[in-house]
Amino acid sequence: MAVPKRKTSKARRDKRRSSVWKLDTPAFSKCTQCGELKAPHKVCGNCGYYKGVEVIKKEA
């Protein structure tokens, strides 16, 4: 069985574990009603529509 020859330093260990900064930016899609950018699979914050159906009633 393979055994490490030397102890892995804290810096080397933490460098390996810190791949969190490689996260992707969130994707955005256009609303079908108003054309505003919104998060996918979410209700549009501008007009209140989701998949062409009014979910939240917005006052104009």
UniProtKB/TrEMBL annotation:
GO cellular component annotations, sorted alphabetically? large ribosomal subunit
Q: What processes does the entry annotate via GO biological process terms?
A: translation
Pfam families in the record: Ribosomal_L32p
Name the UniProt key words of this record, in alphabetical order: Ribonucleoprotein, Ribosomal protein
Q: This protein's superkingdom?
A: Bacteria
Q: Which SUPFAM superfamilies match?
A: Zn-binding ribosomal proteins
Record's InterPro entries? Ribosomal_bL32, Ribosomal_bL32_bact, Ribosomal_zn-bd
GO MF terms held by the record: structural constituent of ribosome
Q: Which family does it belong to?
A: Belongs to the bacterial ribosomal protein bL32 family.
Please give the PANTHER family that the UniProt record associates with this protein.
50S RIBOSOMAL PROTEIN L32, LARGE RIBOSOMAL SUBUNIT PROTEIN BL32
What is the name listed in the Swiss-Prot or TrEMBL entry for this protein? Large ribosomal subunit protein bL32
Organism equals: [Clostridium] methylpentosum DSM 5476
